[in-house]
Amino acid sequence: MLFEDFAKSQTDVVAAMRQMSAAATARGLEKELVELLKIRVSQINGCAFCLQFHLNLARKLGVDEGKLGLVAAWRDAGGFSERECAAFDYAERLTLLGYSHFTAADRPVDGIPFSGSEIEQLTIAIATINAWNRIAAALHFPPPLSSPLPHPA
User: Which domain holds residue 85?
Assistant: First the structure.
């Protein structure tokens, strides 16, 4: 199934998911950071459509190719900021929720390096891409080519 077919048959779902995606950056969370998170979560979930889509968007935003190539190995790669590393760690814990219990200690501490509002925005971004990964993988959306499709996440 193509994303476009899904978008036509599920307009209300796509609209709601787009609104959730937009909420993550509406209050100032960096778009580049959000794209890096969506790439990492899509790698973990094995969603080719979302992975390629968000790689395309990150490139369009000017994210360094060196960083994009090392997202999967961020812990050992160096070159990622404290915020990016904290966000990756949080995204991995939320995405792999079924493998270990998520405790309050797993949540980033307010202000280090995120505010309470930014943690909420990160959580929304992570939850949204996890939902999109499951939809795209289950319905076998083929990955987009080099230019982004009108994808909602």
Answer: 3-138
Is 74 a member of any domain? yes
Q: Quick: pLDDT tens for 27-71.
A: 889 999 999 999 999 999 999 999 999 999 999 999 999 999 999
CATH number at residue 64: 1.20.1290.10
pLDDT of 16 > 90? The answer is yes
Query: Under a CB-based contact definition with an 8 Å cutoff, are residues 48 and 143 in contact?
Result: yes
Phi, psi angles (nearest 5°) of residue 140 = 60, 45
Cα–Cα distance measured from residue 37 to residue 95, given in angstroms and rounded to the nearest whole number: 11
Residue 151 maps to a domain: no
Among residues 17, 39, 20, the alpha carbon closest in space to that of 120 is found at 20
pTM of the model: 0.89
State the total domains in the chain. 1
